[in-house]
Specification:
By secondary structure, this protein is an alpha/beta fold. Helices cover about 30% and strands about 25% of the residues. It has seven helices and twelve strands. It is globular and about 40 Å long.
Length: about 240
């Protein structure tokens, strides 16, 4: 999509089916530990050359929490899960049975130049439309729900996807000089078996698969060990 087209969609608040002209789907069929999943997202963002999506799995039940969240609060909310602090913001999110994805937009893309609230809305409107085609009738929340917990899926913020009063999709973002990282989770809803294969197509009419490179895997492994699994990172707040 062109820069002017994205801005028009954001300004007029209309859903736009294709956020990117082309989108790389980073193939990642293996389950990973929580620290590695976060490290791979950071690695991909720092090396980003084209819009991309990565859909990934967890080797055991996990809980991720936003950059500024308190470690102890996450442990009390979801005891026994493998914890990890995200590079993005947001609240406390359980993982293991959800569809977890990360969407990447390079700094020279039109999507990156949107305001955060608008890119968040357009991404979730694209997912809502895909869900509707699969028989799941959700809506993008116009206003936040009352906050009762720091657990992300026990409350909805503006532009999350909800079914009735139940939140089914939320996300958090981070922008750097390299581009935009949008980390999202879809849960609390029964999805068709092919949903993951269809998700990339919600954002672009032209998708292409690519494998993670050996260098990316090695870099993420080091980053997972030295940063995301460290007490200095995990317990910084």
């Amino acid at each position: 999509m062109t820069k002017s087209g994205l801005r028009d969609a954001a300004r007029r608040r209309i859903p736009w089916p294709m956020l990117f002209e082309t989108l790389d789907r980073v193939v990642d069929p293996q389950s990973h530990g929580a620290a590695f999943n976060m490290a791979m997202d950071e690695t991909l963002l720092r090396r980003l050359k084209a819009p991309a999506i990565r859909i990934y799995r967890w080797s055991r039940p996990a809980v991720s929490f936003g950059y500024f969240e308190k470690y102890q609060a996450a442990m009390e909310e979801y005891p026994g899960r493998e914890p990890v602090r995200r590079w993005t913001g947001g609240g406390i999110v359980p993982h293991g049975e959800d569809v977890t994805y990360s969407l990447f937009a390079p700094a020279d893309s039109a999507a990156f130049r949107l305001k955060p609230v608008e890119s968040y809305r357009l991404i979730h409107e694209s997912i809502r439309d895909l869900l509707a085609r699969q028989g799941v009738e959700g809506r993008v929340a116009a206003e936040p729900f009352p906050e009762e917990s720091r657990a992300c899926f026990q409350k909805a913020v503006r532009h999350d996807i909800v079914v009735g009063s139940r939140k089914i999709a939320g996300a958090a973002q981070r922008r750097t000089k390299c581009g935009l990282l949008h980390q999202g989770s879809i849960q609390n809803v029964e999805l068709p078996g092919q949903f993951e294969e269809l998700l990339a197509g919600a954002f672009s009419g032209r998708t292409r698969e690519r494998e993670m490179t050996r260098e990316e895997l090695e870099t993420a492994s080091v980053l997972a060990r030295e940063k995301y699994a460290s007490d200095a990172w995990m317990r910084r707040y």
